Amino acid sequence: LLGNYNGTPAAPVSILQGIREAVPQAEVVYERGAELVEGLEERPIPGAPGPAGPLPPASAEAALAAARRADVVIFVGGLTSQIEGEEMRVELPGFAGGDRTDLRLPASQQRLLEALHATGRPVVLVLTAGSALAVDWAQQNLPAILFAWYPGQRGGSAVADVLFGDADPGGRLPVTFYRAEEKLPAFDDYRMEGRTYRYFHGSPLYPFGHGLSYARFEWSDLVLDRGRVARDGSLEVRLKLRNVGQRAGEEVVQLYLAPAGAPRMRAIRELRGFQKFALGPGEEREVSFSIRPATDLRYYDERAKSYAVAPGTYEVQVGVSSADLKLRRRFEVTD
Fold first, then answer.
1. CATH fold of 15-167
2. In 10 A of CB 237, how many CB atoms?
């Protein structure tokens, strides 16, 4: 539930407790079927179910037996603050000093996850972590994945609310999730080329800004109040967002700016605004943004030792992530 910089909560709610409280009429069976990471001596975690320490030899078999008797399996895995953080004394498979050397789910967890899937029961994957995980296999084989990050003291209640439909999963990814086999630049290579949504030309597992909702939304009528704008001017962007689903939900409207003919090399696109809306079935909302080239399109001119704006053609892109763009319109920045 907790990351690296936190106090000790007085009454933490584990994910297991949150699920049991959400469905008191159901029989909820818990089994600790795998080690967090092979070779790790796990320490007790506030609010975590069951004891820490070495895993009994028959734990995986017990978890599989419970899965075969169940209607649905909820696999809670991922990482904890015991194995990822800053300058930690952690030397385990996939980890070095608190840093990650492998983006994949630890092998001990992956083996159990695949074995649970092989039972034929539906498996829902809930992940906790403070960094991206390359869960390519899960994306291809499981019906649902919920990334909870480190959700805090009452994280178990929040996770249960989303799992059982009492809350809409309105979060959006603040980082890019790369695929397991993606060849990324070295960690100590501080050039941006080939990393982050701004400079990565590949196909990510989940793009920056990605997130789902239990509702469905329709985007329409993107309008710019002018097609040309001075470098010190501004332009207004408007569009319509409508919930065309059968239930209430939340959507995050993301606005990106991209070069479409500007003379200076820039990022592929850059996030320049976002707004979150909760809409009931059939509800429609007009969304507006203001773009100011002097701040939204500026770059640092090393020769002049000051910020500048390059004249040229740019594109407004709005969508649900940096890769799922629904509407586009171009405008020109003049001298």
1. Rossmann fold (3.40.50)
2. 21
